[in-house]
Amino acid sequence: MNQMLQDSIDTTTDIATETAPPADTPAASPPDESPPAPSHPRFAKPQRVAFVQSAWHRDVVAECRIAFLDEIEARHILRDRVDIFEVPGSFEIPLHAQLLAKTRRYTAIVAAGLVVDGGIYRHEFVSDAVIKALMDVQLRTEVPVFSAVLTPQQFHETQAHFEFFRKHFATKGVEVATACAETLLSLERLRSQVAAGII
Questions:
Q1: For 5-amino-6-(D-ribitylamino)uracil, which residues are the binding ones (predicted)?
Q2: Could you tell me which CATH number the domain at 49-195 has?
Q3: Which of 122, 166, 189, 191 is catalytic?
Q4: According to the annotation, is 56 in a ligand binding site?
Q5: Which of 142, 144, 135, 150 shows the shortest CA–CA distance to 181?
């Protein structure tokens, strides 16, 4: 009986010795599971963007700008080709956007702001007025204007709401950068086709 037990232990030891890697062999590193960075098309001509942001709740709106700059750079518009302008509130954005568009220096303008307080009627009036005015600027000047002006109906100045809208603005920053870059590429192609008489 003791001999059988000893034989079993010896066999187990032999198997363990055969299958275990040598002590000085480094453990295999796990495969890199991060997806490759997406490849974005490049522009034929240099682009310049104006980013107009409201100072009202600056720390929340800043998340949009930070995310926008990261994403727009990934899409081949360098940060030094984005000029930042700050205005007191969202209501002041359209006039600044119009003046910037009229300079013809910018190929796109992005607006970011947070409209809150003042009751539902003022809230809806300001948000409607800002969005309509931004659309008018783009149609009058043919400079595309993009809005990340958010108008939450249930905003309370609590830490939980501030945290939620910081994350939401970061998401909107990526979305507005994507829309901006893709529209500029589309307009670049369209204008080239018009100039060539294709369209």
A1: 56, 90-92, 114-116, 147
A2: 3.40.50.960
A3: 122
A4: yes
A5: 144
